[in-house]
């Protein structure tokens, strides 16, 4: 049985080369998505974020917007990680 037009070559070296190239392309795509979605100023400190969050709550009322919810979730996760590093279980 002969397979024609298959995605991979029969050569192991060529398959590895294609996989490495595909992996690199995926990494570059992920980097572009991260840079596009990341905040403009990465050096923003947490107190400023908290002030912005309070202002957003005043503007939008009691309902939480997605950004505020995401920030709170990330802050809670960071606090849990910091506590688990400080207090390792015996």
TrEMBL record:
Residues 11-35 form the E3 ubiquitin-protein ligase AMFR Ube2g2-binding region domain. Residues 1-26 have a biased composition (Basic and acidic residues). Signal peptide: none annotated. Pfam families: G2BR. Residues 40-61 have a biased composition (Acidic residues). Residues 1-90 are annotated as: Disordered. This is E3 ubiquitin-protein ligase AMFR-like. It comes from Notothenia coriiceps (black rockcod). The gene is LOC104942180.
């Amino acid at each position: 049985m002969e397979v024609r037009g298959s995605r991979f070559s029969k050569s192991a070296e060529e398959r590895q080369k294609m996989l490495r190239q595909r992996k690199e392309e995926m990494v570059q795509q992920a980097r572009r998505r991260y840079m596009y979605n990341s905040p403009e100023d990465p050096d923003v400190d947490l107190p400023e974020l908290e002030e912005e969050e309070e202002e957003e709550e005043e503007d939008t009322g009691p309902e939480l917007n997605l950004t505020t919810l995401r920030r709170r979730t990330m802050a809670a996760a960071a606090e849990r990680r910091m506590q688990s590093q400080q207090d390792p279980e015996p």
